[in-house]
């Protein structure tokens, strides 16, 4: 029995689904969609009936139905006279389409070259909530170094993420801003929140750099309160993020007062973040513990790979007060190697003798090494 077209489900009852659009997504042409929907309305009909209802020629109906039958939408009864076309049950059609989609998955996955989604190099952020989210996410993804300036009265919003970074062994340099009083170190407990922390009495922009790949700069008032109309910039371009780090360490860090320094980490320890290796070496030396370093890197003038070891006889750095470097971003280890002083810098070093990729620090326990360190008195090394 052929259903009455009036018995079909009302579109409103079907949730106003755009069936035509969905069918086109499965590859049906406009006329194939019209033909199929007409057949759904009739259930089964002659080609002439479908042609009249769909507004196409009878020849086109036969052509369209040939394709629709191949894809499982209809059945052409060409053994009957006259030929009729029957719409297959919707549940059968849907199951066949779903089956086709499922069968494609293994082949698609086999050909899929998985790649990380690329981030835009710049993002302008207008919401305080979004800025905090970007800062927290970047800190949570840090593997080597975090440098952050943040209002002291808002520190609890990021403190948990900073603690987790410290626990992961990340070097965390923190400036808390808006700290009042003559004893800024008493204003807030920063143990566990940072590797080294400083305080600044006045508001300053909130700045963040993570692993020299992500930077955030936000006006002070934008982080302090909502709805200021200010905007922040998030940078994910590796060429520019280090510029933010340079500004942080070169302009703001030296001007702030040191309020906390963590204890030196246990040795031996291996670092791929050169600045962290320098800081740890200096912490151990200040604690009266002599250290040696094993360096894997390159000879600066030639780029030739090299590994060398020796006692650390001098440290130039600007993270811990008092600074011992000549300019803010200078961080250098000087080693005693075969009776000579060899200077070691981090990535991009050009005036040191060695550019380090990896540094292993160990306690200096060998008397011969101590003698070697003592035999290299005088500063013959070049630092930068």
TrEMBL record:
Domain Transcription regulator TrmB N-terminal: 23-88
Stretches the record annotates as Disordered: 361-384
Domain of life: Archaea
One Pfam family of this chain: TrmB
InterPro entries: TrmB-like (IPR051797), Tscrpt_reg_TrmB_C (IPR021586), Tscrpt_reg_TrmB_N (IPR002831), WH-like_DNA-bd_sf (IPR036388), WH_DNA-bd_sf (IPR036390)
Domain Transcription regulator TrmB C-terminal: 122-362
Family: Belongs to the transcriptional regulator TrmB family.
UniProt protein name: TrmB family transcriptional regulator
Annotated source species: Halobaculum lipolyticum
């Amino acid at each position: 029995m052929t259903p009455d077209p009036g018995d079909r489900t009302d579109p409103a009852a079907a949730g106003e689904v755009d069936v035509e659009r969905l069918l086109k997504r499965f590859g049906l042409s406009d006329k194939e969609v019209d033909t199929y929907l007409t057949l759904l309305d009739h259930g089964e009909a002659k080609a002439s009936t479908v042609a009249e209802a769909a507004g196409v020629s009878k020849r086109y109906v036969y052509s369209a139905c040939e394709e629709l039958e191949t894809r499982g939408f209809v059945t052409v009864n060409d053994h009957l006279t006259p030929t009729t076309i029957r719409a297959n049950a919707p549940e059968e059609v849907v199951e066949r389409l779903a089956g086709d989609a499922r069968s494609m998955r293994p082949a698609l996955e086999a050909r899929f070259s998985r790649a990380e989604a690329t981030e835009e190099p710049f993002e302008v952020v207008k919401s305080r909530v979004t800025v905090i989210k970007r800062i927290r996410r970047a800190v949570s993804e840090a593997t080597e170094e975090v440098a952050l300036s943040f209002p002291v009265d808002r520190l609890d919003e990021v403190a948990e993420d900073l603690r987790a970074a410290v626990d992961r062994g990340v070097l965390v340099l923190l400036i808390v801003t808006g700290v009042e009083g003559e004893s800024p170190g008493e204003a807030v407990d920063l143990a566990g929140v940072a590797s080294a922390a400083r305080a600044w009495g006045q508001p300053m922009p909130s700045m963040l750099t993570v692993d020299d790949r992500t930077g955030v700069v936000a006006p002070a008032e934008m982080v302090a309160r909502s709805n200021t109309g200010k905007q922040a910039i998030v940078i994910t371009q590796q060429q520019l993020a280090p510029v933010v780090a340079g500004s942080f360490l070169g302009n703001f860090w030296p001007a702030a007062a040191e309020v906390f320094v963590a204890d030196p980490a246990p040795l031996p320890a291996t670092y791929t973040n050169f600045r962290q290796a320098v800081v740890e070496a200096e912490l151990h030396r200040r604690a009266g513990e002599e250290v040696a370093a094993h360096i894997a890197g390159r000879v600066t003038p030639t780029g030739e790979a090299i590994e060398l070891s020796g006692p650390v006889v001098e440290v130039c750095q600007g993270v811990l007060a008092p600074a011992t470097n000549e300019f803010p971003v200078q961080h250098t280890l000087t080693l005693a190697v075969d009776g000579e002083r060899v200077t070691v810098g981090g990535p991009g070093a050009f005036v040191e003798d060695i550019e380090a990729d990896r540094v292993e620090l160990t306690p200096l326990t060998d008397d011969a090494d101590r003698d070697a360190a003592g035999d290299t008195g005088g500063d013959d090394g070049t630092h930068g």
